Amino acid sequence: MFNDFKLVAETPVYVQVKNYIKRLMMQGALQAGQRLPSTRELAELLGVSRGSIIAAYEALTDEGLAYAVTGKGSFVAEMSTPGAHAIPAWRMNWHERMNRQARLSVELDHMKRNQPGLRAKKGTILFTSIAPDEQLFDLENVKRAFLDRMAVEGRVLLNYGYAKGYKPLIDYLLKYMEHKGVDLTGKDMLITSGFTEGLDIVLSAIGRDGGAGGRMLCENPTHQTAIKNLRRHGFEITGIPMEPDGLDLAALERELQTQSFDGAFLVPSYHNPTGIVTSAEKRLALLELLGRYRVPVIEDGFNEELRYTGSHVAPLIAMAGQGNGVVYLGSFSKVLFPGIRVGWVLADRELIEVLESVKRARSIHTSTLDQSLLYQYLLNGNLEKYLKRARAEYRRKYEWTKACCERDVPYARLSGSGGLHLFLEFPDGFDTWELLELCADQGVLFTPGDMFFVDEGGRNTMRIGFSRVSEEDIEKGIRVIGAAAAKLLEAVKEWDLNNG
Amino acid sequence: MFNDFKLVAETPVYVQVKNYIKRLMMQGALQAGQRLPSTRELAELLGVSRGSIIAAYEALTDEGLAYAVTGKGSFVAEMSTPGAHAIPAWRMNWHERMNRQARLSVELDHMKRNQPGLRAKKGTILFTSIAPDEQLFDLENVKRAFLDRMAVEGRVLLNYGYAKGYKPLIDYLLKYMEHKGVDLTGKDMLITSGFTEGLDIVLSAIGRDGGAGGRMLCENPTHQTAIKNLRRHGFEITGIPMEPDGLDLAALERELQTQSFDGAFLVPSYHNPTGIVTSAEKRLALLELLGRYRVPVIEDGFNEELRYTGSHVAPLIAMAGQGNGVVYLGSFSKVLFPGIRVGWVLADRELIEVLESVKRARSIHTSTLDQSLLYQYLLNGNLEKYLKRARAEYRRKYEWTKACCERDVPYARLSGSGGLHLFLEFPDGFDTWELLELCADQGVLFTPGDMFFVDEGGRNTMRIGFSRVSEEDIEKGIRVIGAAAAKLLEAVKEWDLNNG
After folding, report:
1. What Cα–Cα distance (Å) separates residue B384 from each residue in A7, A68, B168?
2. DSSP single-letter state for residue A234
């Protein structure tokens, strides 16, 4: 005994000794009533100071695991160690106990299945990510924001906060949204743990009473996370095809005439995956049309800040004026730091009041630390500085990626006028999964587009995320994609000639 | 125009100027094509430096809201401001659109209704909270942990993490649970945004297929949050009465014989609200019994660390050995910092794999900042130091509260052998809501116990949370409660004499 103790760095020695002895107790190697070695003796055995042993014994006593007898030393306390009792270890089949929503969560978990990035070896060029480039992060300003805020109200930040969110942040973001042209009359805000929680909370609350499930509209293709969560929540999805300036209004109206819907999930700016920005005219027509059929809009403000060219377009919730039919989901995850999980829902005040209760039931509130750090970071004027740098950097990459695609993949139609990705559409019959096979062999991965489609479509499309790829690798990777695509197109043409 | 500009502290001046002009644009006070004042002119009008105006104009140009014409100055860009278009503002009735779960979330939201604390005036003695006393928080160690971790891997922490959690924290907590005697074979861990999210995720995944709703067992009384979430998720609740050493096993067995259950939610240590610690013998009997009926256990590790007296008792998941029937929910929120939203689910590996997908769908992952800060704080050995102080402090308050109750409220049966609260049970017929009325008038609030009951019971019980009340106020408050109770008991006795 006592011969397998190993010290590690950072953690205080006495804590390590305490945990070591605790483990011996739990394993039954040290039994109740047994005398522990003297502090001098154990210090020698473990090769640590006597002070550490004394502190460790004190800590064990504190936890009720040992007791001291004056003049006699420390003893192992009576305790209900699991080892001391024989319990029939019963096993259950958890898979049988999982319900539909849980099973769907696994089935639709793209990170676990169909994720090309999973196969990445070192040196692979990864066009699969649209996470921000962490080299851009201004750590010093983040640290400053943290310390500033801790100095102002550290104790408050570490205790319970409010389900609705951290008040100074809410006030700041309300102003921020007002600057985007939103009329705040009758509206309110709920802070969530990122965009995704916001969407999940909204979807969990709307419609679908009486079992059979509701119906939702969305652009087709759209956001994977949105498709997944719409399905998980039991919504039937009706996808509306995209045109270069936003979704096909005629197709939308046909659907609205035949069925009723609980809502429409829309990504009007730098749409994921197509990168399309819905035009101002179409936004107005959309709002008018959905309003006529009383279908509320769930607007994803995704990447709104990552505009490189073109004029300013107001979000739908701004265009709706004092109307209460738009629920806006915002987040700085893609433009600032995804590790800080803060998003917001801006909507009708009565709706926010309900969602606040849902949020409280689900997770009490979003981390006050994250919220207050973000608030102070914004207050210190860092967003503007950061966006200036980030926009310049991403814009360069965006233009470079576009130029490379135009040169090396002329067979595909490009879309995307901002954000962190481009979308490629090949001729019908082309299969981007086959293309991925070829490219993966040469160390280049991207995201096949069918993952973003709510139906069987999109086999001939793909998304290229460039945010985390160097310019050198962008050029190299796209050349590989172009050459592989040429080879595949040749094969398709030949097949057509022989069979068509 | 330009006469209602007001500077505030902290935010850079140019950002304030930019936002000010943006607002004028959004309001339509500045129109597309209009020339903005020269930088010199505006600097004078607003009383700020010319450099700030130049930076503000640049930022507006960056955002696509303005454009510069060489030699002529800056102009307002063409944009789709909401003010420029007339849209019929349509309004919907959101309440009609809310589903059962959302409505239940509001209805069961104790923070919004029935919360005695809501009526608190300044100077009120609040026994309603069981949040930690923030005067105990060791801010310096929290700051140190943050800066240490940022120095090691700041960029990684701010980018996306993993749904399962921050690996170093998981490894640390697995060891931590092993030290509590848990056999980790076949088990795994998911990090959640606090205990509550853990519970909500587990409940969202188990049983209730085919609509009609499942059934759950729990101690009666129990945790408000648990009752709320069991109901929200559509479970019928069967409460088992408590005895001084844990729930009534005979009553439990009777229920198990008559119905099947999807699970049992149990709080074996410092049970909320009764403060009861289930004895080691009862824990074993419980596990054996539930195992026989194949009912999985959801164990709330609540306050396990806040043990003041008595011997160490292993959690149920430790006693279950290699069995996989116990799902353990842990958190340091009550012992450390609630503002940092980190909890964990320790359970069968296959179950964790499913819950990981659910977590990803709901919120991608828990704040990496919170997780890494907590990890570094633990690694630095602060938990032990903090617990030593916190235990001493809370124990003193606990004993003081107990002594005051024994002296001044001798009519009530006391329970609670640790944690941050005591539970009082008055004779049948006594109504603690009436007591609260009397006490509130004298500036003392507590939590009536019926809130914790799954049935109509508990009108004669109450919870006293002492963690955030000074010793002076504890004595004063309990004297008020005692005197008011005496008055009420007198009235009850009289009524009995006249009517009994």
Report:
1. 17, 19, 19
2. T
For the record, the structure tokens of A109 come out as 């978990």
Count other C-beta atoms under 10 Å from residue B419's C-beta: 31
Predicted local distance difference test score (pLDDT) of residue A227: 96
Structure tokens at B465: 């949370």
- pLDDT tens for each residue of A105-139: 998 988 776 666 656 788 899 999 999 999 999 99
Q: How would you write chain B as a 3-class SS string?
A: CCCCCCCCCCCCHHHHHHHHHHHHHHCCCCCCCCECCCHHHHHHHHCCCHHHHHHHHHHHHHCCCEEEECCCEEEECCCECHHHCCCCCCCCCHHHHECHHHHHHHHCCCCCCCCHHHHCCCCCEECCCCCCCHHHCCHHHHHHHHHHHHHHHHHHHHCCCCCCCCHHHHHHHHHHHHHCCCCCCCEEEEEECHHHHHHHHHHHHECCCCCCCCEEEEEECCCHHHHHHHHHCCCEEEEEEEECCEECHHHHHHHHHHCCCCEEEECCCCCCCCCCCCCHHHHHHHHHHHHHCCCCEEEECCCCCCECCCCCECCHHHHCCCCCCEEEEEECCCCCCCCCCCEEEEEEHHHHHHHHHHHHHHHCCCCHHHHHHHHHHHHCCHHHHHHHHHHHHHHHHHHHHHHHHHHHCCCCEEECCECCEEEEECCCCCCHHHHHHHHHHCCEECEEHHHHCCCCCCCCEEEEECCCCCHHHHHHHHHHHHHHHHHHHHHHHHHHHHHC
Inter-chain contact A158–B337, Cβ cutoff 8 Å?
yes
Q: Given the structure tokens 């106020």, which residue do they identify?
A: B473
* Contact assessment for residue A413 and residue A486, using Cβ atoms and an 8 Å cutoff: no
pLDDT score recorded for residue B118: 59
Nearest chain A alpha carbon to B278: A80
Cβ contact (<8 Å) for B111 and A360? Answer: yes
| CA-based end-to-end distance of chain A | 79
Chain A residue whose CA is closest to B281: A80
* Cβ-Cβ contacts under 8 Å, A31 against chain B: none
Tell me the residue type at A175: K
Please tell me which of the candidates B158, B209, B225 has its beta carbon nearest to residue A142: B158
Q: Which of A128, A143, A175, A364 is the best substitution to test chain B (most B C-beta atoms within 10 A)?
A: A364
Using a CB-CB cut-off of 8 Å, the residues of chain B touching A339 are 156-161, 367-369
3-class SS at A201?
A: helix
Residues from chain A that touch B81, judged by Cβ atoms under 8 A, are: 181, 314
Output the pLDDT for position A493.
Answer: 77
Mean pLDDT, range A358-370, rounded to an integer: 95
Task: Find, among B405, B404, B398, B414, the residue nearest to B449 by Cα.
Answer: B414
Which of A284-288, B119-123, B416-420, B496-500 shows the lowest mean pLDDT across its residues? Answer: B496-500
Mean pLDDT within B198-218:
85
Question: Whole-angstrom Cα distance, residue B60 to residue B22?
Answer: 8
The HSE-up count of residue A4 (CA atoms within 13 Å, CB side) is 7
pLDDT of residue A372: 95
Q: What residues of chain B lie within 8 A of the CB of A262, using their CB?
A: 97
Residue A395 vs residues A388, A417, B62, B399: alpha-carbon distances, Å: 11, 10, 12, 64
Q: Which domains does chain B have, with CATH numbers?
A: 13-84 (1.10.10.10), 116-134+387-499 (3.90.1150.10), 136-383 (3.40.640.10)
Which H or E run includes A480? helix A471-499
Cis status, amide bond into B116, omega within 30 of 0:
no
